[in-house]
Structures are given as C-alpha cells and as structure tokens.
C-alpha cells in the first residue's frame, strides 16, 4: 500500500470525519496557518465531505487523513492543493491536530508518504509549501525532506493586525 508507513497510514476522508474536520476548521489557534477567517458550519463541512469523493483531477486538491496503522481514528490531515496538471505541481500542507501527537515523527512519516505518492503515482514534477517564517517546526520538517526556500513573501499575512512574512519552499522531483 503506497500510503502506509511504519506507524501511520493516509486514508481518504469519510462521512464519519465530520466532527474531526469541524473541530480543525473551527480551531482559531490554527487559523493563521490555514488562512481561515471565519468559522465553518457542520452543514458546510458535511457538504464538503459529500464531495470529497472527487479525485485530484476534478477537485484540484487531495485531502487525506493521518491515522495510526492500528486505528481508523484521525490524528491529522495532509493536503495537496492548487493542483496544476499542466505544470505538474501542487501545494502541500500538513496538520497534526492534538499537541500530544506532535513531535513523535508522525508528520515526518505522513509527509514522506505523500511526497513519494505525489512523485511516483501522480507523476508531479514539483511540490511547494507556504510556511510562516516564525513556524520553526514546519520549517524544519520541510527542509528535512529537501524542500528549498526559494523566496520570502514580505508582510504577506496579516495576523492580529501584524503583518508576517511567509517563506515559499519548493521540492523538485529530479
């Protein structure tokens, strides 16, 4: 199985993930990372999950749930977004929901699985990530897998009336 690692696997979204996705999308502490500005209703999340069966070619995104190998319970989400088939590229983002599950290598394992899937199965030429310059954990995670910083978007995101820089990272499939 391409999306199964030593400790975790990545699976498609299910209708049963409604409360999990609802909790993530409405967690104001991560709105800075997800660029969310308003809460989502359960109704909208339910509609989103009903349309989650669209493949990456239709939806231009792929959102997968991170789970331990012995469980179907979600730990986090990892996404490909802004899929561009003409240029064979997509953005990538990751979130482990509960802080007790962070710093255990789960994000590393999930990112490795999705990079391999993106390059081998989807035949992507490159992946990119937008990371706040003050997000040290994400900066370390992506550089660990060879993502290169190719630029800084100055004062890119306004957070609590403060403009913050965002770095653009790129990984090219050689």
Quick recap:
This protein is α+β, with helices and mostly antiparallel strands.
Description:
The chain has 174 residues and is an alpha+beta fold. It has a domain at 8-124: Aminopeptidase (3-Layer(aba) Sandwich). The chain contains 6 helices and 7 strands, in the order βααααβββαβαββ. It has a 7-stranded mixed beta sheet with strand order 1-2-3-4-5-7-6. Helix 1 packs across helix 3 (42-50). The longest helix is centred in the middle third of the chain and has 15 residues, at 106-120. The model has no long low-confidence stretch (mean pLDDT 92). InterPro entries: Acyl_CoA_acyltransferase, GNAT_dom.
Offer a few descriptive terms:
seven-stranded mixed β-sheet, 35% strand, Aminopeptidase, globular, alpha+beta, 28% helix, 174 residues
């Amino acid at each position: 199985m391409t999306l199964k690692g030593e400790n975790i696997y990545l699976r498609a979204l299910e209708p049963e993930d409604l409360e999990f996705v609802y909790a993530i999308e409405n967690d104001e502490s991560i709105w800075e990372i997800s660029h969310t500005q308003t809460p989502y209703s359960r109704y909208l999340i339910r509609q989103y999950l009903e349309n989650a069966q669209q493949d990456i070619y239709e939806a231009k995104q792929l959102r997968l749930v991170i789970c331990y190998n012995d469980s179907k319970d979600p730990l986090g989400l990892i996404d490909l977004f802004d899929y561009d088939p003409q240029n064979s590229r997509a953005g990538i983002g990751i979130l482990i929901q509960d802080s007790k599950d962070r710093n255990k290598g789960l994000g590393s394992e999930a990112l490795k699985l999705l990079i391999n899937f993106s390059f081998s199965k989807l035949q992507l030429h490159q992946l990119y990530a937008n990371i706040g310059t003050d997000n040290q954990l994400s900066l370390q995670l992506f550089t660990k897998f060879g993502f290169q910083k190719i630029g800084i978007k100055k004062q890119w995101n306004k957070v609590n009336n403060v403009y913050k820089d965002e770095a653009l990272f790129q990984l090219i499939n050689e």
